[in-house]
Design brief:
Layout lengths: L16 E7 L6 H11 L4 E5 L1 H6 L1 H9 L3 E4 L12 H18 L6 E2 L8 H9 L3 E2 L4 E2 L9 H11 L5 E5 L5 H17 L3 E2 L4
Parallel strand pairs: 1-2, 1-7, 1-8, 2-3, 4-5, 6-7
């Protein structure tokens, strides 16, 4: 984290508040499930959306915005920054920005690199364009086939602290673990006095 200090890994907070984030959506059913769970706990979150999925599911994307959540950019095609020329990577990201702006008047300029893989040059270009590169300090591992749904839940509950940025995925791949873990995480952290805040 010290080496990659240009990225945001967590927030400094004296208050019991955390930042739930969801990568890879929006998609039907899974994103809708997430929105319903968040509503139950009056929780706000940040959705790092893939441009191609916004294009395929505009009504769900509008629902995320309507519910008062923040939007982040996750490239148009879920690109691996280490394997993508920087020019192509930035063009792909800006394509998503353009699409987000069609639906959303408030452009938060939040960016999360797919797989957490991004080159120094890509980061520099994004920072120049006003983006904040958002990483995480709590990874649920809901996408990992080797992680059980119980482990996924404990990954979050054991590591979360004030200001934590927590990663889930509203994707088909993560669905089974997400459906199990998210309601428990929301309930248990709420009981501990945590509030769930959207990034600005």
């Amino acid at each position: 984290k010290k080496i990659f200090s240009r990225y945001t890994w967590c927030f400094s907070s004296n208050k019991p508040e955390v930042y739930l984030t969801f990568d890879d959506g929006p998609i039907s059913e899974v994103t809708e499930f997430v929105l319903k769970q968040l509503k139950k706990h009056n929780a706000k979150a940040t959705f790092f959306c893939i441009g191609d999925n916004i294009q395929k599911h505009p009504s769900i994307f509008k629902e995320i915005i309507r519910d008062g959540h923040s939007i982040g950019n996750h490239t148009f095609n879920h690109l691996n920054g280490w394997k993508t020329p920087s020019k192509n990577y930035i063009t792909n990201t800006l394509k998503t920005e353009e699409l987000i702006n069609k639906f959303h008047s408030k452009n938060t300029k939040l960016f999360r690199p797919p797989y957490g893989k991004i080159k120094y040059s890509q980061t520099s270009l994004l920072l120049k364009k006003g983006y904040k590169v958002i990483m995480w300090d709590v990874l649920s591992a809901d996408f990992d086939a080797k992680t059980t749904k119980e482990q996924c839940t404990q990954n979050v509950l054991k590591k979360t602290k004030n200001g934590s940025i927590i990663v889930f995925h509203d994707s088909i791949k993560a669905r089974e673990k997400l459906y199990y873990a998210l309601p428990i995480v929301l309930e248990k952290l709420s009981k501990k006095g945590y509030s769930f805040v959207a990034m600005q």
